[in-house]
Structures are given as C-alpha cells and as structure tokens.
Amino acid sequence: xxxxxxxxxxxxxxxxxxxxxxxxxxxxxxxxxxxxxxxxxxxxxxxxxxxxxxxxxxxxxxxxxxxxxxxxxxxxxxxxxxxxxxxxxxxxxxxxxxxxxxxxxxxxxxxxxxxxxxxxxxxxxxxxxxxxxxxxxxxxxxxxxxxxxxxxxxxxxxxxxxxxxxxxxxxxxxxxxxxxxxxxxxxxxxxxxxxxxxxxxxxxxxxxxxxxxxxxxxxxxxxxxxxxxxxxxxxxxxxxxxxxxxxxxxxxxxxxxxxxxxxxxxxxxxxxxxxxxxxxxxxxxxxxxxxxxxxxxxxxxxxxxxxxxxxxxxxxxxxxxxxxxxxxxxxxxxxxxxxxxxxxxxxxxxxxxxxxxxxxxxxxxxxxxxxxxxxxxxxxxxxxxxxxxxxxxxxxxxxxxxxxxxxxxxxxxxxxxxxxxxxxxxxxxxxxxxxxxxxxxxxxxxxxxxxxxxxxxxxxxxxxxxxxxxxxxxxxxxxxxxxxxxxxxxxxxxxxxxxxxxxxxxxxxxxxxxxxxxxxxxxxxxxxxxxxxxxxxxxxxxxxxxxxxxxxxxxxxxxxxxxxxxxxxxxxxxxxxxxxxx
Length: 582
Hints:
Elements: E1 5-7, H1 11-23, E2 28-33, H2 40-44, E3 47-52, H3 63-73, E4 77-79, H4 89-97, E5 101-102, H5 107-114, H6 116-125, H7 141-151, E6 155-163, E7 166-171, H8 177-192, E8 197-201, E9 207-215, E10 221-233, E11 236-242, H9 248-264, E12 270-278, E13 281-288, H10 295-302, H11 306-314, E14 331-338, E15 340-341, E16 347-348, E17 351-352, E18 355-357, E19 364-368, E20 375-376, E21 383-391, H12 394-407, E22 409-411, H13 417-423, H14 427-431, H15 438-446, E23 465-471, E24 474-480, E25 488-489, E26 502-503, E27 515-517, E28 522-527, E29 534-535, E30 540-546, E31 549-554, E32 559-564, E33 571-572, E34 577-581
Parallel strand pairs: 1-2, 1-4, 2-3, 4-5
Antiparallel strand pairs: 6-7, 6-8, 9-10, 9-12, 10-11, 11-14, 12-13, 14-21, 15-16, 17-20, 18-22, 19-21, 23-24, 25-26, 27-34, 28-30, 28-33, 29-32, 30-31, 32-34
C-alpha cells in the first residue's frame, strides 16, 4: 500500500478521499488555494500546503507546484478526484516520471476515452451503439449546417474534450447553429484548452443512464449496475438514482456492452460509461475515466467503497470482486445541494454561509465540505454537498429524501434545497417516468423567474435570517429579510474557533431600467454587442463565467446600444450594468 497520498483537489471530493485514506491507514496531504485556506479538507488532512492564488490555473491546475508539494511531503501517490487533472493523460504520465502512482486509469485509457470523438470510435469498435453524428471535428457553421441536414434538427454541438455539460450547446434550427458552435468552442477552450467541436443528433426526450465499471491492472472488469441522471439543468446533473427506470432487457444489454467496452480498452480503475436510452434502445454518449460525483448512490446500493477500490487497484491489487458475487440492495437517490437560485435561472450564489445544519438518521448520507462561517468561493463550482438517501425500495428512498431535505438548513447563500423539496413531492418524480428535458420544464412552471431587472430604487435580493420567537409559549421560526446590513456574529467551526467571523451585506449597485445588468458576480467572458447595435428583447448581449458555468445575459427590452459598460476579462458584481440601451 502507499506511504502517503497527495490529494490534488478541493472541497467535498477531497474530504471523501481523505476519509478513504484514513480507513486504509494512509497519511493524506491536502493542497489549497488562497480561497480555500479555511476549507474543511485543509483542516482534516494530515498535512496541508498552499499552492497559489484562488484562480484554478494558478493553483489547482498548476502542475509544477503540485509536484513540488508531492516531493516535499514525501508522497508516493496522487489522487486527482474529479475535475482539474482527473482525466489528464499528460498529468498521469508526469506522475510516473516523478516516481508517483496516479490513482486512476492508465494514460492510454484516459487518452482513448478522454476525447469524445476517439471515445465514439472506441465504442463503435466494441460494437456498442453510438448516437448518430460525426466522427470527425466540425470547423465551420456551414459544415455543421450540412450535418444538420443529414441528421435532422435539433443537433448537439459538443466540445470534444468536454464533460459535465460544459461545451454542449443545442441548435434547434439553422438560425442557432453559428452561435451554438461558437459557444461550444469557447467553453471547450475555457475549461479544457481544446476548441475541437463535433455534431450529434440531439435526442429530444431520452433518459440519461450510466453504468459504473471497475477494472484492475490484470484484465478483470465488473459492473456495479447503472444510475439514472436524467434530471438535469443546462445538461448538468442535479438528481441521480439507482436502479434506473428502464426495462430489464435494456438493462442487461447495457451492462454487458459497458463491460465489453471497458475490457476492450484495458480499463483499470473506477469509471463510468454514459448512455442515452430511448425505449429499448441505448446509445453510447461518453466515458468518464474517473470517480463520478454520483458514485455515492452506487456505494449505497452495491456496498462497495469505490474510492478505496481506486486506491487498492492503483496499488496493484487484483480485483477481489466477481460479477456473480456482486448484488445490489434497495434504492438510492442523490440530490446535489448547489449554491444556486433555481428561481433566478440557477444563478450561482457565492458568499458566506451563515447557517449550516446537515440532516442525519437512518439511510442518510451527506458528503460535503461546507460549514457555518465558511465563504463559498466564486472561483469554483457551486456544489455545497451531496445528499443521499437509501431505502428498501424507491418509494422508501423518496420519502426518506424528503425527510432529509426538510432537515437540511443552509442560510447566507441560495441553494437548490427548495427545488428538491418540491420536485420529490411532485407526480413527475413520484411516477419516475421522466426524461432529460423535464427538470427545466418543471422549474419554469413551479419556479418562474422574477420580473424585470431592478430599478435604481429597488433593493437587491438578500438572503434571509431566521429569528426564533415565542408566542403564547409556542416556538416559531421566522424568516426575516432586510437585516443583512447589520453585522451578524457567527459561531466558527472548531478549526477556526477563537477568531471572530463577520458577515456584511455586499455593496449595492444602482442601475436604471435602460441598463442590462450582470445577473451574478463573475468574469465577463464575451461581449456580443457594440455601441450602435440594435438588439431585440431576449437577445444574448454578453456571457459571464461564474462558478465554472457560462451564463448568457439577455436584453430585457429592445433598443439601440448606447454604451457597453464592461469589457472581456472584467470582474463584475451582481447588478452591475453591462450594456446601456436607448
């Protein structure tokens, strides 16, 4: 087994890996950026090292600094978690050159499945059906239009190196192709340093189903069932469950095809093969050559610790599980507790958490790294915690999840908790017959966006505070808005006790009805208009990057651009004017 493991990641996945290392009696080293100095993973680690400023390219994506820490700390292995260097073959090769074991698949497997075009070719060679589309890059809108005529609208334009919904744009007709292609390429460059894009036929109402596989370095591969991930926003998952709501015939065929594909590439770690399912037909979508965010529901039903399995396989152990001995039990559901406002287009909501109380009890698991007093950074993704509920059957798991959601209390930032409370009680989820477009339709109906942008006299929306009062000796909790201007003293976590923590309301930005405001704090990634341009109501005028998401900013009325009030690369506050119309 390893002498010491460096965890090249942050947040809840770093905490998850730390716990696995502790159970295997392996010392673990954390790394952190300036924004994560007070992070839970830093406090929990046996050792922790600063690696740079908050922006990921200067810290978590700074390979030189990570390897310097590994050498100084005496590590002999690196676990990348997910994101950052998790699916980077060059990083895995450099680990070997530095005398470190990369806890993940071989560089060959990463390369074979890391690019979506190469992965589609590998799936086709393994006789696994693929979504109809191109097997070569698309370099122009005209070429994409030609393919659209062949496959039919709508089409998906996808970054070949993309993942997690990033770099995926849909064109429903010819007028949307050029913009979708440009945005998919831009996200490919921003997140994966690769502008390569290809085209697939966009299936309008599929189920998104993925198979968990586990392979060793000795040629053995097993599957641990499938997960359904069809409830998504912006093609990014929010709710996952296992087993999936598919027929037994397609389930068995899907498992067999996934194992066949993993064996064909010599896969040697935990990995996920993602597919789209329509009726009794399924199509290969992509393979994630890493641990998945939603690995938790598989662990709950199959009884296998997938992170410890990754570590043991990387250390050279033969697979200790046979397919015949593996058997699932019950049903599990995961809800991703994100710092986002569903009623405001899933606007990211970074800031200080003033209250954090996680649920517990039978069948409930919370994987997180948040606590009261911690500041949710805007530089990284919006995931606060993963809430998992297990039950003897789906209905038992659903009711348990509703109970857990009712216990989960987070204040100071907006979260997806209210959305999940409504969703899991709705017939859409109760029946289980949902597909990939259904969550966004549900949000539009149940969480309509608030009206037009605020006027210069309007107060910006602030997170409420909960005040406990007693009336006639009965206890009530009252949510009060508008108190954030006063300082709120917090009880800091044990790791920072002795230091005071204060929260003050963010600086308010005054705008008028002619301005198109930034809907969130973020970085201007693209401006789409210039002074003198005529814009229509609903037209995209800018792109803002916030918490690892590209967010389109649209005009709230028609008019002529009088001034452009921000430039690419600017950091803007929520409500700051981007464009002024006349």
